[in-house]
Every structure is written in structure tokens, then in C-alpha cells.
């Protein structure tokens, strides 16, 4: 398996050598300015990996107690822009230049890197998919999961969609079509179950109203 993975990490169609997400995150953490960072600095630093990595970082924030609402709210923009096939994430100026404490972001990233290193043993470039179509599908599913994450008024209900968004973003970054398909299907299943539950509750509410 290691030789298969090593071959997959080599240059693909002239795109250059593949760099795992854990390495990109570690480089970001090491190069982050002291004191404060901004979303504008993140997107400028990430270049071609900006969509997947921004979504991965925001999903990690969305699953972190205390700052999870921030990640959930910020996920709307890149997910919608991916769905529309924008070249890179764009945030309004007042959001893009808003300071985020480097220490707080660094703590989230530092906890994530060892987990990513473990996951990357099983998630690596294979089963490549059409880039433009993949980007649109990923953006659409993440957008719907973000709606579920933000709008579900139940304690701890943010964890499942945030973890699924992080896994989808990781598979997208690692160019692993196989894991990407599995995680997208898992996301679609969660959304379908939520819709079915909401339908049943609404149907039950209508019957209750008729009876009483």
C-alpha cells in the first residue's frame, strides 16, 4: 500500500508534487504571524488549496466548544462559492480582515495535525474525479450540511455535520475520490434522515392539530 501511496503523491498531470493536508496545516501554523491572523492571510497563503483547507479549518473550529458558532457561520461563504465554481474563497472585507488570535487558531490546528497524519495513512490520492464537477458537488453537500449545523437547535447537534464536513474537505484536499464518494454519501444519508424526521414531526403536528 505504501508504494501505491508514494506513486499517488507524485506529480499528477503537471500539477506538481502532491502535499498532504497535515503538511500544509503545519506550514501554516509555523508561518502564522504572531498575535493575530485573518481569513485574508489564510486564503492568500493557501493558493490552490484555499477552498478545501479553509473549509477544513472552519469545520475544525465548528466542532470546538466555545467557538463552534463562528466556524458554522463562516462555512456558508466558501461552500456556496465552491458550488458556483469560484476560483478561490471570497469573504466581505470586514470579515476577511477581522483579526483571529493566532494562539487560538494554533491550538485548534495543533490538535488536528496528529489526527490528520493518522487519517492520511488511509486517505491519499486515488480514484481521481472530474475537478469541476467534484468541486460543485462538494460545495453543494457542504452547504446543506452547514445549514444543518447552524439551524439545528439541539445541544451537541453541531458535532456530526462538522465532522462530516471536515472529512469531506480532507478527502477533497487529499484527492481521494474513493473516500470522497463515501463521505458525500454519508452526508447525503444524514441529510435524508433529518428530512424524514422533520417530515414525520410536521405530519404528526398536523394530526395533533386536527384532533385537538
Number of strands: 2
Shape assignment: globular
- Report the order of strands and helices: HHEHHHHEHHHH
Major sheet: order of its strands?
A: 1-2
Q: How many distinct domains?
A: 1
| Individual helix count | 10
In round numbers, the mean pLDDT is 84
Low-confidence parts lasting 5 or more residues at pLDDT below 50? 1-15
First-to-last CA distance: 63 Å
* Strand portion: under 5%
Q: Work out the radius of gyration.
A: 18 Å
Give structural notes:
Mean pLDDT is 84; it is low at 1-15. This protein has 212 residues and is mainly α. Helix 2 (21-31) runs antiparallel to helix 7 (102-119), helix 4 (50-62) runs antiparallel to helix 5 and helix 5 packs antiparallel against helix 8 (131-151). The protein has one domain. It has helices at 2-8, 21-31, 39-46, 50-62, 68-83, 93-96, 102-119, 131-151, 159-173, 177-211, and strands at 36-37, 100-101. It has a two-stranded antiparallel sheet.
Task: List the topology elements.
Blueprint (H helix, E strand, L loop, with lengths): L1 H7 L12 H11 L4 E2 L1 H8 L3 H13 L5 H16 L9 H4 L3 E2 H18 L11 H21 L7 H15 L3 H35 L1
Antiparallel strand pairs: 1-2
At a glance:
With 212 residues, the protein is mainly α.
List keywords for this structure.
mainly alpha, two-stranded antiparallel ribbon, 10 helices, 70% helix
